[in-house]
Amino acid sequence: MKTLILFFLTCIIGTGAFLAGLSMKNPLPAFIVAFGVWMLFLYRLGRK
Questions:
Q1: What value, to the nearest 5°, has the Cα angle with vertex 13 and ends 28 and 9?
Q2: Domain range list for the chain
Q3: Measured distance CA(21)–CA(13) in Å, rounded
Q4: Cα 10 vs. chain centroid, distance in angstroms?
Q5: How many other β-carbons are positioned within 10 Å of the β-carbon of residue 10?
Q6: What angle do CA 38, 36, 7 make, to 5 degrees?
Q7: Which of 10, 21, 39, 47 could serve as 30's disulfide partner, Cβ 3.0–4.6 Å?
Q8: Whose CA is closest to 10, among 45, 48, 47?
């Protein structure tokens, strides 16, 4: 159940960061946040 909640939070944060990157002049920081959140989620999932 905890993994499902973390997955939904990762989806929300990642989607928000990607959408923010669409309207930014320099979208690199938003993409770093989005991919970073997914990498942390996958790292935590693989560590179990």
A1: 155
A2: 2-47
A3: 12
A4: 5
A5: 18
A6: 25
A7: 21
A8: 45
Structure tokens that stand for 44 in this block: 């935590």
Q: How many residues does the chain have?
A: 48
pLDDT of the residue at 48: 77
User: pLDDT digit string (tens) for 19-37?
Assistant: 999 999 999 999 999 999 9
Q: Which of 1, 16, 14 is nearest to 42 (CA)?
A: 14
Question: In one letter, which amino acid is 35?
Answer: F
**Left, alpha or beta for 38 (phi > 0: left; psi -120 to 50: alpha)?**
alpha
- DSSP secondary structure letter of residue 4: H
